[in-house]
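Regression report. Comparing outputs from two consecutive submissions.

Submission 1:
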Amino acid sequence: MTGIDAHHGELGAFLRARRMELSPAQVGLPYSAGRRRRVEGLRREEVALLASISPDYYTRLEQGRRQASEPVLEILARVLRLDDGERAYLFELSGRDAARPRRRTAQKVQPQLRRLLDDLSTTPAVVLGRRTDILAWNPVAAALFTDFARIPDKKRNFVRLVFCEPAIRALYPDWDRVARTSLAQLRMEAARDPKDPRLTELVGELSLQDPDFRRWWGAHHVAVQGPGTKVLNHPTVGRLTLDWSFLTITGDPDQQLITLTAEPGSPSHDRLRLLASEAERAVGHPVAGTA
């Protein structure tokens, strides 16, 4: 399958998943409660009607046999009530960038970034690459999450750890939400490079190992990365409420520095500093780990 074919196939699956989540009442279509519908959600004909396109045109889109124009994509985004992340994903899947092969060279953390990780001695920080691969981390991040160094390079992936590492599962009292969000961000990555063999391998592996991953991946939900707040139940220092931020690396836009901080003066801030002290004592001095 070519990159364009892969994009079109995913586009069709995404459109089907989104229309199945909408009811006629939600989009203002008449619906008789006494009549039983054969399918859940909207029919293809109803989406075509709302988008002012022919049913045949829309059917071809879902079947991957037609490429949509930008105006049609905009209309479908409104009809299907897509949020900003889903709209961006829809345009990624339109196939406009599929003909340009993406670089799959091994990612290396810049020396300047390693020094920055060293300096963030009281702030958990990790560098994520493509597919949420964990490229580098500092000691307090290892103390917060897990000892990344004990995990083989090819298994050192954040989404995999969320689903497969019991210690990390136990950190999150709202594990379902964290797992769904990380998976949705991974699906956005898949839209950018659908032929990435390592990503295909990762999705296949997790689909076989975890029924939740398999079910949620099939739902075709997407999300863009952005700042937020995480609550963690750490086995040593207790409950932490941390704000996380993303910083994209200029020299390699596929790398992101993620930091977690606590409100100054809060119990979480004090507990985080305690964790940082313990991490520094454990290694002797704050040195960042790398993949």
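Submission 2:
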Amino acid sequence: MKLSAVTPHQTTPPPRRPASARPSGSGRPLATFGVVTASIAVAFGAGAGSPLFVLYQHEWGFPAWQLTTAFTVYAVTLLATLLVAGSVSDHIGRRPVLVGAMLLLLVTSALFLAADNIGWIIAARAVQGMATGAATSTFTAAIIELASPRHRPVMTVLTSAAPVGGLALGALFAGVAVQTSDHPTAVVFIGLAVVLVYGIASVLAAPETADRHPGVLASLRPRLSVLRAARGWFWSLVPLVAAGWMFSGLFLGLAPSFDSSIFGIHSAAVNGAIVAIQPMAAAVAGIAFGRLAAERATRVGALLVFVGAALAVVGVAAGSLPLVIVGALLGGSGQGAAFGSSLRILGPLADNASRGGLFAAVYLVAYTAYGAPVLLAGIASDFVPLTATVVVYGSVVALLAATAALSLALRARRTDRPWLAEGT
């Protein structure tokens, strides 16, 4: 993996028109709404897996490690796609990437509907990860670029809330479907397919915001493409983004297991609601904190993630569900504040020709933290009690959040006292 510091003359070849020449805020409002809806639907499909996996395990009787594999393969293929194709939309345009990704998600829905064993589910999740990896950063870039300059900060916040909001809606909706329907998989994925078709039509109706230019094959080399101007902030925000998304993985990846084994919850609807609390809090807080200065919001977010992780750990260790719920609410709010403000800080540091690659790097950090620790926790739970696994997991989240809080506080101090930064 290569980290490239992209300079302005490297990312702006002479034949391409300046970014200002592309439509910004001139897209059809209904089409833009459809693009936003489709971005939520992409995450909805991923969040729906948590309650459904428990149902599949009960019906098909596969071991716990295969359940963890079904969760984690999504993150693995998503990360691989981000590494290889995260910058492709900067070269061929946003629309081809988004349409291709949503077509792949339609294939995913078909695989879920045809599944009769865990192998089909793992295959479906692998394809889902590929599609989401191609779509996530591209949706973020496209929605920001479709917004007018006046509305761009609001749309940046909205794009940060869409992934976690979609995860929450998917978990909640799937939990209710499992509880109330004889065919929950059909209810979830046929409904999702309808929204994806609407999303494809919306993307095709919206104006293209990124010019085509050479270099697409070179962009497929695994690397993180981070503009030189953004590198300082990027590395300062890495532990914060990682802490928030790792905390999200705790609930979406492990909550179905500890809800049952530690708290004795066997209702799919209740399980889905508990899983959804953390990402829903993140989505709501991401929008609410959009009114706060981005730099301050990152520091508040780091503290909230730290407190939320600590409460969740204590709640699981003590067998107190209310403490876990409060921890989910506070930590989820911290993730929303942190991630939204991180995108608000980084977004203006890139132009239309490099924004997709920059956001791909951000999401690479996010989804690595979201998936890899859950895989390790799933393996560990075969050898040590689940309670101990969750305590260690939550402690790592708290440590990352504390590291981020310290780093951001020091950065704010250097900003307030410029002479401290001389020579750095």
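Expected: both submissions complete independently.
Actual: both completed, but the second showed a warning that disappeared on reload.
Relevant detail on submission 2: The first helix runs from residue 8 to 11.
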